[in-house]
Design goal:
With 351 residues, the protein is α/β, with parallel strands linked by helices. It contains twelve helices and 14 strands. Helices cover 37% and strands 19% of the residues. Bound molecules: S-adenosyl-L-homocysteine. Residues 113, 115, 117-119, 158, 162, 193-195, 216, 258, 260, 291, 293-294, 296, 336-337 line the site of S-adenosyl-L-homocysteine.
Length: 351
């Protein structure tokens, strides 16, 4: 089996090449070819010796996923269903914000977290994605953006899967994307979103890199959170907030709370007050990102009205909490998280 070099951090590539008798500089050269010159062919790496190029050809690959389905929305959103070597399918989305091109990366094939409102969890996790496969999501999107002279500028690990349930591969992927000699995507342009795995949150505070952390909160108390997020039973609010405080002091960074507004469930003004109280009570320095719910046919939840969303945001602001409403993309394609994949995978299962 050839090893996919696209999953290697510069450090790992250096260690491995040195062990093969090369100089430390060799990995820097190869990294530059792959990510700066975008040459995906070992034989074209002309400043690498012929002998070592032959070793690379023999033992390593530079495989990218195949594009199974592509959807382009009228607002410029691009959604891809990618097929990995073993046939596993994952979604990747590009959202053209005014400040840059943001890719939403999947971290697992399916998801085990079981959030009641989410389409990704309709199919259980079959495996983790490797760092090479996540890099494959990004490079495939760059390949599409190329025609307009654009590049992915921001990464959110908010696609299918729970990133902290695949911690090491996700961190390797981020380090590769962030590497100065490679794509050089700034750490502050990279965000990992977790449903609240507290061990991961604590560990993430010690990475020594200025990446952002988002927490899917979605409820102002344990009672509602237990109804929609099974993970809340393992890690109740107290444990979660404790880990976040720990993260804040170790990383020196604020977190963002994601909060999906679900009509009649968590979107009242009393609940906005409760959320403000919760954040003040724990003394967490958080932003709140309010997310209009993308309805999923298999799920009973309804999105809150625009006026309820605005009233909720205004109440938080009045209570001294920095709140924003997430801009929506891809209204005319299968925009909801995991929706396109679910359609295709369910179809496959029926065959
Ligand atoms: N497992 C991680 C990352 C993937 S989900 C996490 O839970 O954070 C990314 C975000 O999308 C989460 O906040 C998730 O709750 C939210 N989400 C899931 N389904 C959604 C939907 N139908 N509409 C809007 N947001 C959704």
């Amino acid at each position: 089996m050839k090893k996919n070099l696209l999953g290697y951090t510069l450090q790992r590539m250096t260690d491995e090449f040195v062990a093969l008798g090369q100089t430390k500089y060799r990995a820097k050269q190869v990294f530059g070819w792959l990510y700066q010159k975008r040459v995906m062919d070992f034989s074209a790496m002309t400043d690498v010796s012929k002998d070592f190029r032959a070793v690379l050809e023999r033992d390593y690959s530079l495989d990218l996923p195949k594009i199974h389905t592509r959807q382009d929305a009228s607002d410029g959103t691009i959604k891809l269903l990618l097929e990995m070597e073993d046939g596993a399918k994952v979604e990747t989305v590009l959202m053209p914000y005014n400040y840059g091109d943001v890719i939403c990366v999947s971290s697992q094939v399916g998801c085990n977290m079981g959030c009641a409102f989410c389409a990704s969890g309709l199919h259980r996790k079959t495996r983790n994605l490797t760092s090479a496969e996540m890099m494959g999501e990004l490079l495939t999107m760059n390949g599409i953006l190329d025609q307009w002279g654009r590049r992915v500028t921001h990464i959110v690990v908010m696609g299918t899967g729970e990133p902290f349930d695949n911690y090491d591969n996700v961190m390797d992927f981020i380090r590769i994307a962030n590497e100065q000699l490679g794509l050089a995507i700034g750490a502050r342009h990279i965000t990992v979103s977790t449903c609240g795995l507290v061990d991961g949150i604590r560990k993430y505070g010690h990475e020594g890199i200025q990446i952002n952390l988002a927490i899917s909160l979605h409820a102002p108390n344990d009672e509602i959170r237990n109804q929609i997020m099974p993970i809340s039973r393992a890690y109740p609010m107290d444990a979660l907030m404790d880990a976040i405080k720990d993260y804040e002091s170790n990383a020196g960074r604020r977190v963002t709370f994601e909060y999906i507004l679900l009509a009649g469930l968590n979107d009242s003004l009393a609940q906005a007050d409760e959320l403000a109280d919760l954040i003040h009570h724990y003394g967490v320095f958080a932003y709140v990102n309010l997310i209009p719910y993308n309805e999923v046919v298999e799920k009973p939840f309804k999105r809150s009205s625009p006026s309820a969303v605005k009233a909720f945001a205004d109440r938080l602001m009045r209570r001294g909490i920095n709140a924003t409403v997430r801009k929506e993309f891809g209204g005319d394609i299968d925009a909801a998280c995991g929706q396109l994949r679910s359609k295709v995978v369910t179809g496959d299962e029926g065959k």
